[in-house]
UniProtKB/TrEMBL annotation, chain A:
Protein name (database record): Carbohydrate ABC transporter permease
Keyword Membrane in record: yes
GO annotation (BP), single: transmembrane transport
Domain of life, source organism: Bacteria
Gene3D superfamilies: MetI-like
Lineage of source species: Bacteria, Bacillati, Actinomycetota, Actinomycetes, Jiangellales
UniProtKB/TrEMBL annotation, chain B:
PANTHER family tied to this protein: ARABINOSE-BINDING PROTEIN-RELATED, OSMOPROTECTIVE COMPOUNDS-BINDING PROTEIN GGTB
Annotated source species: Jiangella asiatica
Top-rank taxon, per record: Bacteria
This protein's record includes keyword Signal: yes
UniProt family annotation: Belongs to the bacterial solute-binding protein 1 family.
Keyword Amino-acid biosynthesis: no
Signal sequence extent: 1-26
InterPro entries according to UniProt: Bact_solute-bd_prot1 (IPR050490), SBP (IPR006059)
Keywords from the UniProt entry: Signal, Transport
A Pfam family recorded for this sequence: SBP_bac_8
Transmembrane portions of the chain: none
Full protein name: Carbohydrate ABC transporter substrate-binding protein
TrEMBL record, chain C:
Transmembrane segments: 29-55, 90-111, 123-143, 172-195, 224-246, 278-300
Annotated membrane topology: Multi-pass membrane protein
Record flagged with keyword DNA damage: no
CDD domains attached to this UniProt entry: TM_PBP2 (cd06261)
Keywords: Cell membrane, Membrane, Transmembrane, Transmembrane helix, Transport
A Pfam short name: BPD_transp_1
One GO BP annotation of this record: transmembrane transport
Primary location: membrane
Keyword Membrane recorded: yes
Descriptive protein name: Sugar ABC transporter permease
One GO CC term on file: plasma membrane
Lineage: Bacteria, Bacillati, Actinomycetota, Actinomycetes, Jiangellales
Subcellular location: Cell membrane
């Protein structure tokens, strides 16, 4: 029983054929056109780099000039003074564990909710959905006090538990949405072959969910990576503090060291940008070798 | 890839993951061992925890180091931006997890202000400390609740007008000491093609400095009891002529075109940059913002100077608004004596001086400090003569009056509402805060 | 092929609308328990506990707050500031939901193509979603200042008449905020649609092309119907997110100029952390949740019907 066989077709993915297409004039036009659109779209990032790579005096004098003499010291400063190395490890630990648990727990839950056609499952589905709508502030104080009572403040554990619970509605919503569109025949075939529900899920359904898993991973990872207020509340000032907590410490009430904040943020978004870049290739490969309809 | 190969990969991955998980869990960070925060400090002198704002953290860091060496006490500091600190401190106080030393706002200006927390009984009484004798009058008014001193000023900030010296020199201007001179200077600058006053009023923070600075001269010296009268309902902002005058002054500058064009869309940083580049001549700001302004010029602090904003035609009546940056002792602190001892240390004249010099701010206590930086020299005489008052909003009943001033104030600047409307709205919030 | 693809889309959906589906798979409910435990611990229980404060005059202090019944709600519905915040919230929600979904879909379709640069482009269009609101706010405040790069650019291409005080003029500030949000989040919608497009078999397109369907017809009759689940997700997430919008507004305009961009979330925040009126703030949070839930439910039902029809 293999996902590859399920597709039942041996046609090469059309992308390969198109990829080998000749560089015609309209095609070059389309490529360039999209790149121009993207460049305009990314203009704010130019401003971002301009702040991160200039001294404040340079920035004031010529905010939009290309940073010819880049102030790389901003990056070194942010790295050292913010202890971003430690913060990076903390962020990776928190985001990594949270996302792993989210994917495991969320996909299973969504599998039940999407496959059971009962009133109970629909009710549970709505209950999870409600989590997307509840403002965080409602439960902030009670949850904080429970974490205090469990002696979990200032630990990764409190943050991971929080992030998993907080991002679960998104994961369940995404998984359930795509699961509903996924034909049941594959897993039913597996069940006929004698596989239990869990192994049918693990061997057949989960691999087919690759594109959604990619989406869940990237969306929740970003949310967790950038989360600021709860990490500040739970692990602020401790050795476990995450990147945004460390970086935003350079903000003051009336004066902020923007060049340090932007350099720090440049360092902070790199890992997640790389993850996204790699992940989307993986997701597409998943399509090419997995589902064929 | 066949399913067999895949599941092998997955099994390996699972095993690796499980191994990592076990290692990581046993390493620190996932669970609190009994007393994780003091693992490497010597325990002789105990521990003081502190939750302070970003600025205090920078100023205290060298002193904390010295204190730890001197006494063996561990000072465990966390910090956050004031905005977030105010938000989190409330949650921590409610939950009994707040640090021993906490940063509180002056007067009643936020839910975690000295006055508010003091009346709730959240703060320890500091009245018996020797340093309370060194509190200046404007600071004492904000640190006291019912005759008890509840807060320690680590430093003070003043609202000053910073100007670009080159721009003033090019226009042949002297520092204005009266309102008429200020208006004349603005006219000369405008004629020279310079924006006389940068007005980065987006978000409202910089707008409020104008209200406090003008009120410091126009309202308080004439009537020092105005806050008591407001609280007692004997007068209102809308019916008080001096308060009307404050807004009339701002309107005069606005209507003459002396403030930045599109001021409501101008963020603070761009406003400061425009003064650094000479597009604008001056900007009214808190002294804590001066380092940022200086940073925007190649010549640093040399390029700028400050003066106290005049508001009337009697130069001798000019007052400068001053705000203390407070620390208070949590009433529920485990070891309040350790916290008090640390404040005692901070109150020593050489440490007051060290903090002020580190941060380029005014000393919190009147202990005859000499400042390294000449930045604030122009307002020293005023302070020496006692011509300083707290920011006007500090003794309003809560943060709402100020919030209304910031938001409705933007509508007022835009000409959408009249001065009377604005002040009436603030009065309504004032009354609501009293009830 | 077509048949197998379409049928499950009908049969799989949970909910009362699908009761007629006889064939139920016996996936055990046990599998939902781990998720439910996390969710209950972090969201459900604390929220229910916290919601109780909406009926009190809690000021964030220790001790038991006074019970005030429905006073907070009566005040909320009679406050003009809350009404204008509600209006702004709805304007933001409707406009971002529509525009962001369209842009996200267009991007996904363009980048699901054979463009050689598609991987780089996908990363580029997605990049804004990676920045935290504080940074976004700082960047756009600068770009949108009266003498900022946007107005400069408009002036230099001869569109000087279109220059605005983007965030400082009460009549355009809301639109500017909306544009920034869409800029930031269009990449998220794109990602959802890209995932959805993985489920559209290219063979269908080829078959339709052979049948003589044009580009537009193929999009309308083949791609869009198969993207129905992705559309449901994208629309719902955007709607919910924009109804709850807080950070970007708070950082960029703090609700101003005046009250022009104030949303319910911003009012909620200020009532709690500026005014210390936590009880009242909690009441706003509850009302906001109910508004979002009502909208989301309506939308979901509509979309589900659309999915089923496909």
């Amino acid at each position: 029983m293999s996902a590859v066989e399920v597709g039942g077709t041996t046609t090469a993915p059309p992308r390969v054929r198109h990829g080998g297409r000749r560089w015609t004039l309209p095609r070059i036009g389309a490529e360039l056109g999209m790149l121009v659109v993207a460049a305009v779209f990314l203009f704010p990032f130019y401003v971002f780099l301009s702040v991160a790579l200039k001294t404040p005096a340079d920035l004031a004098r010529s905010p939009l000039a290309f940073p010819t003499d880049p102030a790389l010291a901003n990056f070194a400063d942010a790295w050292e003074r913010g202890d971003l190395g430690t913060a990076m490890v903390n962020s990776v630990v928190v985001a990594g564990f949270s996302v792993l648990m989210l994917v495991a727990v969320g996909s299973l839950a969504a599998y039940v909710l999407a496959r059971r056609g009962s009133r109970l499952s629909y009710g549970l589905y709505l209950l999870f959905l409600l989590g997307l709508m509840i403002p965080l502030q409602l439960g902030m104080v009670p949850l904080y006090q429970v974490m205090r009572d469990l002696n979990l403040l200032q630990t990764y554990t409190s943050l991971i538990i929080f992030e998993v619970g907080h991002q679960l509605p998104l994961a369940v919503f995404l998984y359930a949405g795509f699961l509903r569109a996924l034909p049941k025949e594959y897993e039913e075939a597996a069940r006929v072959d004698g596989a239990g529900p869990l192994s049918a899920f693990g061997r057949v359904v989960f691999p087919l969910l690759r594109p959604v898993t990619g989406t869940v991973v990237i969306l929740s990872a970003i949310n967790i990576w950038n989360d600021f207020l709860t990490p500040l509340l739970y692990v602020g000032g401790s050795p476990q503090q995450t990147l945004p907590v460390a970086i935003f410490a350079f903000r003051g009430e009336f004066a902020s060291q923007w060049q340090i904040i932007f350099a720090g943020m440049g360092i902070a978004i790199l890992p997640i940008l790389v993850v996204y870049f790699l992940l989307q290739k993986y997701v597409i490969k998943g399509f090419a070798s997995g589902i064929k309809g | 890839m066949t399913i067999d190969a895949r599941s092998r990969v997955r099994r390996t991955a699972t095993a690796t993951l499980a191994a990592t998980l076990t290692t990581a869990l046993t390493a620190c960070g996932f669970v609190n061992t009994d007393d994780s925060s003091t693992e490497d400090g010597s325990d002789d002198g105990g521990t003081v925890t502190a939750y302070v704002n970003t600025e205090q953290n920078a100023g205290l860091a060298p002193l904390v180091e010295a204190y730890q060496e001197e006494t063996g006490t561990t000072v465990d500091i966390s910090s956050a931006n004031t905005d977030e600190l105010n938000q989190q401190l409330r949650v921590q106080l409610t939950s009994g997890t707040a640090a021993d030393l906490i940063r509180v706002s002056p007067g009643n200006s936020s839910p975690v202000a000295a006055g508010v927390l003091g009346r709730e009984g959240e703060l320890a009484d500091l009245t018996d400390a020797a340093w309370t004798a060194d509190l200046s009058d404007d600071t004492r008014a904000l640190a006291e609740v019912d005759g008890q001193v509840l807060a320690f000023p680590v430093s003070r900030n003043a609202i000053v007008m910073a100007y670009n010296k080159q721009v003033f020199a090019d226009a042949g201007l002297e520092v204005p000491t009266t309102w008429s001179e200020l208006v004349a200077a603005c006219q000369a600058l405008a004629d020279a093609g310079v924006t006389p006053i940068a007005a980065p009023f987006q978000g409202g923070i910089y707008f409020q400095f104008w209200v406090y600075a003008l009120a410091a001269t126009l309202v308080y010296p004439e009537n020092p009891d105005i806050d008591e009268q407001l609280a007692a309902g004997e007068t209102t902002l809308a019916t008080n002529a001096a308060w009307g005058e404050v807004f009339a002054r701002i309107a005069e500058l606005r209507d003459a075109g002396f403030l930045s064009e599109g001021m409501l869309g101008l963020p603070p940083d761009q406003g400061l940059q425009s003064v650094a580049t000479g597009e604008s001549a001056m900007v009214l700001l808190v002294s804590a913002g001066l380092p940022q302004l200086h940073g925007y010029s190649d010549q640093g602090a040399e390029a700028f100077d400050v003066f106290a904003l005049p508001a009337s035609d009697d130069a001798a009546s000019t007052h400068v608004p001053v705000a203390p940056d407070f620390l208070a002792v949590n009433g529920a602190a485990e070891d309040p004596d350790a916290a008090l001892a640390f404040l005692e240390f901070l109150a020593q004249p050489e440490n007051v001086e060290a903090y002020a010099n580190e941060m380029g701010v005014l000393p919190g206590l009147d202990v005859g400090v000499s400042l390294d930086s000449a930045t604030l020299d122009p307002i020293e005489p005023l302070l020496a003569e006692g011509r300083s008052v707290g920011y006007a909003n500090y003794l309003w009943p809560n943060g709402d009056v100020q919030q209304t001033m910031l938001q409705s104030g933007q509508e007022w600047l835009d000409g959408a509402i009249e001065t009377a409307d604005l002040l009436t709205q603030m009065d309504a919030e004032y009354a609501r805060g009293q009830s | 092929m077509t048949v197998t693809l379409r049928r499950p889309a009908v049969a799989g959906g949970p909910g009362p609308g699908h009761r007629r589906v006889r064939r139920r798979s016996n996936v055990p409910y046990l599998l939902v328990v781990p998720a439910l435990v996390f969710y209950a611990f972090v969201v459900l229980v604390p929220t229910l506990t916290g919601a109780g404060y909406a009926f009190t005059d809690w000021a964030g202090r220790r001790g038991t707050p006074g019970f005030v019944g429905l006073d907070n709600f009566t005040e909320l519905f009679s406050a003009p500031a809350a009404r204008s915040a509600l209006r702004n919230t709805l304007i933001i929600a409707v406009s971002t939901t529509v525009v962001q979904t369209l842009i996200g879909l267009a991007l996904a379709l363009a980048l699901h193509s054979s463009l050689a640069s598609r991987n780089v482009l996908r990363t580029m269009f997605f990049a804004p979603a990676l920045l935290p609101p504080v940074i976004i706010g700082f960047l756009w405040q600068y770009i949108l200042t009266p003498a900022g790069p946007l107005n400069d650019a408009l002036g230099s291409v001869g569109l000087g008449g279109l220059t605005q005080n983007w965030l400082g003029d009460a009549s355009v500030a809301l639109a500017s905020v909306i544009a920034v949000i869409i800029w930031q989040n269009a990449g998220l919608t794109m990602v959802i649609y890209l995932a959805g497009l993985q489920g559209v078999p290219p063979e269908l397109h080829e078959a339709a092309a052979i049948d003589g369907a044009g580009r537009w017809q193929r999009l309308r009759n083949v791609t869009l119907p198969l993207l129905a689940p992705a559309t449901t997700i994208a629309l719902s997430l955007t709607l919910i997110g924009s109804l709850k919008l807080f950070d970007q507004v708070y950082v960029m305009t703090n609700g101003g100029p005046g009250y022009a961009t104030e949303t319910l979330s911003v009012v909620m925040y200020k009532e709690a952390f500026v005014s210390g009126r936590y009880g009242y703030s909690t009441a706003i949070a509850l009302v906001l949740t109910m508004i979002v839930f009502a909208f989301a439910l309506l939308q979901l039902r509509g979309l589900r019907r659309y999915e089923v029809r496909q």
